[in-house]
Amino acid sequence: KRLNRARESGAARHPRVSMVQSAFWAAFLLVATLVSHDVDAFSTAVAAKKVAFSKYQGLGNDFLLVDNRDAEEPILTPDESEALCDRHFGVGADGVIFAMPGRDGCDYSMRIYNSDGSEPEMCGNGIRCMAKFLQDLDGSSGAEKQYKIWTLAGTMVPTVVASGMITVDMGEPELRGPEVPTTLKPTRDDSAVIDAPMAAPLPGGKDWKVTCVSMGNPHCITFVDDLDAVDLAAVGPQFENHPVFPARVNTEFVQVLSKSHLKMKVWERGAGPTLACGTGACALHVAAVLNNLCDRKATVRQQGRCAI
After folding, report:
1. How far is C-alpha 120 from the chain's CA centre?
2. What is the CA radius of gyration of the chain?
3. Predicted structure pTM score
4. ∠ CA(96), CA(98), CA(221), 5° rounding?
5. CB of 71 within 8 A of CB of 38?
6. What is the mean pLDDT of each run of 10 residues along the chain (308 residues)?
7. Which residues are catalytically annotated?
């Protein structure tokens, strides 16, 4: 067991969004044995196999990292990954990330299965964890290093600096509703969905105003007066699986504390409630700026730690 601590700060801005966030990295070099389960949660039997992995977390967003550089496809199936992510019968994680051979001129490729076995386009905190994992694999820890990584959302370039900070330029947010994607009626001529009324059926039976942003994966942001009053377990799944989001959606509930300080809870597509979401922090900051609720530089307080 190795324990590495890295203090990080970050920024999210529009039109290009960068992310550097505080993280407490815990790497556990283990061998996991997957076995058949006879409980209802794992009705699909998992053939016994041994898989070496490391566990990392950024802002409390935790992942199992697998060295998959010798194979073109993930060496675990979605069902096996779901079993490993279970916090009672598995190792416990928000997802499994596979470091794979590069493609399209990239150094490496990233594939990820969520804790429900679904596959997202990419993950902001996850790709930072992958950058640290790659640096640990290639023995360059402590040195500045940049990786060009292919993802289903396009090429991402995380940078590890000598201090241990890890930054990722998240690129330009996509605001056009059909590209997010959402079928909600645009509120601007450029097809953006900003401060739009949520369509029926209304989550929790309440009226919601939402702003939709893609950071390579879809996000729905709604601003609330009292974040503690949001019943995340009740309304989160209703947003995620709402028919106006054909690819499902990540949902950020945000309370504006000041022009420079935002507080959030997130319900992640395929993972449910998590302590942090990197792309979500970027998306909600973009949404807050578009709604004239905060400055272009602000602190986003997540349940794990803060992003700047």
Report:
1. 9
2. 19
3. 0.81
4. 55
5. no
6. 33 42 35 34 51 93 97 97 96 97 97 97 95 94 93 95 87 96 97 96 95 97 97 97 98 97 97 94 97 95 74
7. 123, 277
